[in-house]
Structure formats: C-alpha cells, structure tokens
Amino acid sequence: MMEQETTLTRAGLTTPRAAAVAGIVFSVLLIISLILVWISVPTDPQETGTWLPRNANRVNLALNLLPFAGIAFLWFIGVLRDRLGPHEDRFFATVFLGSGLLFLAMLFACSAVAGSIIIVYEASPTKLLESGLYMFGRTLTYQIMHVYALKMAGVFMISTCTLSIRTGIFPRWIAFLGYALAVLLLLSTGFIQWIPLVFPLWVLLISIHILLSNLKPELGSVMVS
After folding, report:
1. Which has the closest alpha carbon to 66: 27, 122, 101, 117?
2. Is residue 41 helix, strand or coil?
3. Are 15 and 80 in contact (CB under 8 A)?
4. Which residue segment(s) compose the domain that 40 sits in?
C-alpha cells in the first residue's frame, strides 16, 4: 500500500514537470524558427523572392524544427489539462483545446506551404517566379500566420488565463499579463515584426513557473529527510 502511494505521488510530480519541459522545448524551438525566418526572409509579403538563392537552407532548418515544436506543444496542452483535473470548465476547456489545435494546424500549414515553395524553387526557379506561384505561396503563409494563427494563439491565451484564475494553476499576475498580451495578438495586423514572439515567450514563462513550483515540494522533502 505504501509503495502504491509513493508511485502515485511520484507520478503526480513527474507529469507537471514533463509538461513544463514540453512547454520550454516548444518555446525555444519556435523562437529559434521565427528568428531564422526573420533574418532570412524580407518582411514584405510582396517581395520577389530574392532571398531564395542565399537563405533557402536556413529557412529549411527553421521549417524542420517546427514539427518537433508542435509535438512539444501537444504535450504542453495535455499537461495543462491534467493540472486542471476535475475543476476543468467544459466551455473554456473546449475553447482552450480547440484554439490550441487550430494554432498548431495553421502553423503546420504555413510550414508546408513555405517548404513547398523551396522545393519547387530548387527544381525550377524560373517557372516558380514567373508563374506567380511564389507570390501566391508567400502571401498565403503571411495571411495564415499573421491573420489567423496569431489570433488563435490569442484566444488560447485568454482561455488559459481564465481557467487559471478559476483554478489557480498559475499565479494571477501571469494570467493578467496573458490577457494583455492576448489582446495585443488579437489587435495586431502583422506590421510589428516581433509580435509572433509574444506567444512562445508567454508559454515559456508558464512552463518555467510550473517547473519551479513542482521542484519545491521535492526540494522540501529532501531537506526534511
């Protein structure tokens, strides 16, 4: 009986810690990907593809990191729901899960379109640029990311903060900060270059808090023993 209780206690401590690690991995990988794209691709969605000969490999690296960031984000969502437990509000939990999955799906869609542009360019650069496919793909990725994906990230932040205030899974000041940043994402129109960084940085803040809060009981038990 004692061994069973010890196992359950360790599982309860390990699961949130796994979520925190997943959130940190997601944040770091997404931030690296965004920075690689920013230093490689002009911000103007109407530019003519002058970056492709020089920076295609760098953008490919950024795109290859995104699937792993997405897997980590799914783990992060799962662990947050685990922390909510029986106190989970069905309405906000549905919005929380739906917006998170939509953000992830649109992030992957952007990655797929951008990767396709690079592959077609390597096969036939002249046809890609002259046919208008490059302009279409470039504009499509810009619209999906800045108009739709970031809005879903904002909705995810609002629902997560609301659930946090109701259940106390992380401090209120993080929740209120999340509200403010979410409004910034919802009202952004894509002209602020660094605006996509808001979401992974906020997730990183939550993840670090979860990690530290779950290390404290373990450190306390070690000191007592």
Report:
1. 27
2. coil
3. no
4. 23-224
User: Residue 105 and residue 120: Cα distance in Å, rounded?
Assistant: 22
Evaluate whether 111 touches 144 at the Cβ level (below 8 Å).
no
| DSSP one-letter string for 75-140 | HHHHHHHHHHGGG--HHHHHHHHHHHHHHHHHHHHHHHHHHHHHHHHHH-HHHHHHHTHHHHHHHH
How many other C-beta atoms can be found within 10 angstroms of the C-beta atom of residue 40?
Answer: 18
**What separation in angstroms does the CA of 120 have from each of 54, 62, 137, 192, 203?**
16, 18, 11, 29, 34
218 in a structural domain: yes
DSSP conformational letter for 53: H
The CA-based angle 105-181-165, given to 5 degrees, is 90
pLDDT tens, residue order, the chain (225 aa): 434 444 433 444 446 677 788 999 999 999 999 999 999 988 787 788 888 888 889 999 999 999 999 999 998 888 777 766 666 667 777 888 899 999 999 999 999 999 999 999 888 888 888 888 888 988 899 889 888 999 999 999 999 898 888 877 788 999 999 999 999 999 876 667 788 999 999 999 988 988 888 776 554 444 444
- Residue 172's identity, in one-letter code, is R
The answer to whether residue 147 is domain-embedded is: yes
Cα 29 from Cα 220, distance rounded (Å): 32
Confirm whether 5 is domain-assigned. Answer: no
125 token code pair: 């650069």
Q: What is the pTM of this model?
A: 0.84
In a domain, 61, yes or no: yes
